[in-house]
């Protein structure tokens, strides 16, 4: 069953590896389910059923004109859970995917979920406002949108993903080939969904969703994350979610699924093994 058809008719591409208790993994913007391959392999080999899917508009999923708001995206998650029969599942969201977890917990009451994870997540609120003074200036989001419209491939390869993976003038924790791979995956997405989802994750306020987390929740965030800084994200989420555990990776960038992949895999297996 490589595809699930959502309630509005969108085809969602699903990867379903292994057997056992289900772990559903939601990918970051602007990638696809393939960003989770190393963790999916480890989970399946450890006796879990690893499920990951391409968000609508990205990877191999359909690219409708609409539906890139978090209510619809959380409905997609609900449809995938129902179609795959994933009950008593752990739902783990990376970056933008953390928002889908949060909205699912509130909008769908966390149905079928017994554990949650927010990895380098945008939850609870990204923009800098009077009541969120540590957030990101709107000008940063405007520059992302302009870069995508002007020359998407160049912006992603030479600006966005370098920051994403913490590539600097002196050190580079990933190879050029990883940067090339990430760009090629991101370019599978449509321009409309790429722009619409950037607006969604940068503007949606998940603070009202936090009380809906009523299950053990693992929060992992890098202290060196320049894409989604830790203070208004991981640390704020941990402060607002009961039964949460915050694990900080010292100096880690946003793309810690690659730069600190072995540690992330180990932490996920430890958390899920409870």
Question: Could you describe the 3D structure shown?
Answer:
- The protein is an alpha/beta fold.
- 41% of the residues lie in helices and 17% in strands.
- The chain has helices at residues 37-45, 70-84, 96-107, 138-164, 176-186, 191-203, 231-240, 256-259, 261-272, and strands at 3-5, 11-17, 21-26, 48-53, 89-94, 113-119, 217-222, 244-249.
- It has an 8-stranded mixed beta sheet with strand order 1-2-4-3-5-6-7-8, with helices on both faces.
- Helix 4 packs across helix 6.
- The protein is globular, with a radius of gyration of 17 Å.
- The protein starts with a strand and ends with a helix.
- The model has no long low-confidence stretch (mean pLDDT 97).
């Amino acid at each position: 069953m490589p595809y699930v058809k959502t309630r509005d008719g969108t085809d969602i591409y699903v990867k379903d590896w292994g057997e056992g208790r289900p772990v559903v993994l939601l990918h970051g913007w602007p990638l696809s389910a393939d960003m989770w391959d190393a963790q999916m392999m480890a989970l399946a080999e450890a006796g879990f059923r690893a499920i990951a899917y391409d968000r609508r508009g990205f990877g191999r999923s359909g690219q409708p004109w609409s539906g890139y708001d978090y209510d619809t995206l959380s409905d997609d998650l609900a449809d995938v859970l129902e179609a795959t029969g994933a009950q008593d599942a752990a739902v783990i969201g990376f970056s933008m995917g953390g928002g889908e977890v949060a909205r699912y917990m509130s909008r769908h009451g966390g149905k079928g979920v017994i554990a949650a994870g927010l990895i380098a997540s945008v939850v609870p609120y990204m923009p800098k406002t009077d009541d969120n003074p540590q957030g990101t200036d709107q000008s940063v989001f405007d520059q992302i949108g302009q870069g995508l419209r002007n020359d998407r491939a160049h912006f992603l390869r030479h600006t966005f993903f370098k920051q994403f993976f913490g590539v600097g003038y002196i050190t580079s924790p990933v190879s050029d080939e990883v940067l090339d791979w990430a760009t090629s995956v991101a370019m599978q997405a449509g321009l409309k969904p790429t722009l619409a989802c950037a607006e969604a994750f940068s503007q949606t306020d998940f603070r009202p969703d936090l009380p809906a987390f009523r299950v053990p929740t693992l929060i992992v965030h890098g202290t060196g994350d320049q894409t989604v800084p830790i203070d208004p994200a991981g640390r704020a989420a941990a402060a607002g979610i009961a039964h949460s555990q915050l694990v900080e990776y010292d100096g880690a960038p946003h793309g810690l699924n690659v730069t600190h992949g072995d540690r992330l895999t180990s932490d996920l297996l430890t958390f899920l093994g409870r």
